């Protein structure tokens, strides 16, 4: 049996310097985050810091994972000079539901098939923040080439129209360019 | 929509003083934890500290939750002078599975019905540690009256015989008396 090392917590620091330059910082639902010039992934200090853990799959089934793996590409592609950091918090009502109730809403919203439509153009990674006692529940991170930005906007529009998004009580859309 | 406060992280500190006196400290699978005289729940310093978040339900369905709620009682009952702190880590193989694969093994092991058999005698609370970058994935906490200890041992024996326990790669059984 493999000895499993502890998971790493990733910090996104909004600061005066960092790998990613902030193009826009837009509150979508609830309070925004202070304006900053850059976001440093793996930073430590900043005007604000958001922490999350790239953890295990919470809803995805084995067949869904196969479909994702067949199409998705990783972060760090040279052409992916644009990124989006979208921290999200869901309401108490969402978290009070049992697993099957949350999964039913997730399914009804076609969350996963919508994401599949934009692979491999939009690469994504999900960080979990809720158990860390953070204000956000998730930090969603996306990377794509500049010509994918319109597709990315369309994907967000479709996701935000899902029933699941009625439970989002804070969301901020931070767009970035690799500096 | 209710503004949701961040979750609280609970610290279990193995130390020279604390509300709970250690009666035994037994490694079940993998490395043990250093011997300590007491465990302070909500402590901060100690020979060792284990952190976890009482978070949302990960597998439990709505009908299962109803069955649990109908029978379970809370922590802190005056007669519950005994407790057990059982930190558990599951292997890489467990976490590499998709949600439906993990749930199928959880179901096959009858994990939830076994727990139901010991309600309301054995009160329990689950803390999640994995996303915090802790060495353990879960801190399981149980409280019961002294005359329930044999039933508690039987419950553990039945749980440890489940297929799910083949994925446990570290487990320590710490028994406590309220001091």
Descriptive tags:
homodimer, about 180 residues, alpha+beta, eight-stranded antiparallel beta sheet, globular
Q: Roughly how many Å is the radius of gyration of chain A?
A: 16 Å
User: What percentage of the residues of chain A does DSSP assign to strands (E)?
Assistant: 25-35%
**Number of strand elements of chain A:** 8
Estimated helix fraction of chain A: 10-25%
Second rung of CATH, namely the architecture of the domain at 54-178 in chain A: 2-Layer Sandwich
User: Could you give a short account of the major beta sheet of chain A?
Assistant: 8 strands, antiparallel
Major β-sheet strand ordering of chain A: 4-1-3-2-8-5-7-6
The helix/strand series of chain A, from N terminus to C terminus, equals EEEEHEHHHEEHE
CATH topology of the domain at 54-178 in chain A: Alpha-Beta Plaits
Distance N to C terminus of chain A = 42 Å
Q: Write down the overall geometry of chain A.
A: globular
Please count the helical segments of chain A: 5
Which chain pair shows the most residues in contact?
A-B, 39 and 39 residues
- In CATH's first tier, which class of the domain at 54-178 in chain A applies? Alpha Beta
Rounded average pLDDT of chain A: 94
**pLDDT < 50 stretches of chain A:** none
